Amino acid sequence: MANKIKTHVKKNDEVVVISGAHKGASGKVLQVFPEKGHVLVEGVRLIKKHTKASQDRPEGGIIELEGPIHISNVKLVG
Fold first, then answer.
1. What confidence score (pLDDT) does residue 70 get?
2. Is residue 74 part of a domain?
3. What's the structural domain count of the chain?
4. Within-domain flag for 55
């Protein structure tokens, strides 16, 4: 049985960024990557990704996605 990595935040928690370029920003945790020690926070660290045309997105183009933040840079709110 694989060992689970314990984290102080989980999906749907409200967090605030306590250090780094996005300090002070807050949002809901969308996804946690315990193996890498990263989290995705809604509306924080938006990155632009260039996509090719596909069946889902026939026009292709540039989309904005949340980028990962190190788990040590976020703190639970409340």
1. 96
2. no
3. 1
4. yes
Q: Rounded to an integer, what distance in angstroms lies between the CA atom of residue 42 and that of residue 65? A: 9
Within 8 A by CB and 6+ apart from 55, the residues are none
Dihedral, CA atoms, 65, 45, 12, 24, nearest 10 degrees?
A: -160
Q: Is residue 8 part of a domain?
A: no
pLDDT confidence of 78, banded at 50, 70, 90? confident
pTM of the model: 0.84
Q: Which residue has the tokens 């990263």?
A: 38
How far, in Å, are 35, 51, 59 from residue 55 at the CA level?
Answer: 32, 12, 9
Does 11 reside within a domain?
A: no
> How far apart (Å, rounded) are the C-alpha atoms in residues 74 and 78?
13
